[in-house]
Amino acid sequence: MGVREDEKDRIPSHPDVGTVTLQQVLEALVDPVRRKIVSALYAADDDLRCGTFDLPVSKSTATHHFHVLRDSGLIRQYYVGTSRMNTLRRKEIERRFPGLLAAVVGPGREV
Amino acid sequence: MGVREDEKDRIPSHPDVGTVTLQQVLEALVDPVRRKIVSALYAADDDLRCGTFDLPVSKSTATHHFHVLRDSGLIRQYYVGTSRMNTLRRKEIERRFPGLLAAVVGPGREV
DNA sequence: CCCTTAGTTCGGTCGCCATCAAACTTCGAT
DNA sequence: ATCGAAGTTTGATGGCGACCGAACTAAGGG
Prior knowledge:
Chains A, B: Residues 14-111 form the HTH arsR-type domain. Chains A, B: Keywords: DNA-binding. Chains A, B: InterPro entries: ArsR-like_HTH, HTH_ArsR_DNA-bd_dom, WH-like_DNA-bd_sf, WH_DNA-bd_sf. 2 copies of one chain form a homodimer. Helix content of chain A is 42%, strand content 13%. By secondary structure, chain A is an alpha+beta fold. The longest helix of chain A is centred in the middle third of the chain and has 13 residues, at 32-44. The interface between A and B is medium-sized, with 18 and 17 residues.
């Protein structure tokens, strides 16, 4: 396992969740498109490719949303071939903002 | 007890929390000024006058924020003399969005 | 009755953010 | 070596929301 050395360069930097503010996370989660992404990851309990989300926006806008989610510490991204995989940073977020994910994208939450 | 009949007209309408969407509540809570208001009400566990919040904005802007909070079902307002009192609709919100208030404005949350 | 206190309403400005199309990159497959 | 698939980057646009000041209203006190 492990990522090939030359893959690393394509992986954008991820923040330490400890440095992320509540303001940042809320700003990320307030957008319905981004909340749909996080909801899907939360429900799937598995990594998902960017293409699998069926978002109501163009690809460039989707890229923007993934970028915001990454910067806010909510997701981690890595490449598999030409696909970008997304991981919900569940445990880290839960430790820093207990109960937040469940309250916002947990089961039974409306879209 | 009870509110005088002619007081009623000065009280703006409050939505049924059941009809409020998660989107609305998140949009209300994403603003730091509004979150400061809700945090104070949450911590005080009592009704507070509009003037007691020490907000970093003008009075007209503060009015705007209280209006948004009212429309989102987070607070209830009523008059006492020339003062407007604010009540956090804690139980109703908790029933509709379990864990949300605690996660966003609960004890230990950063500003 | 006048003044103060507390907050609202109105009109307008400004900045940010979601959005898109177009051109580009990178990989895998043919 | 070419093509298609997947996503990025860039530049531009549009709309919404936070903000303010000024004028206003409503209640209570002197």
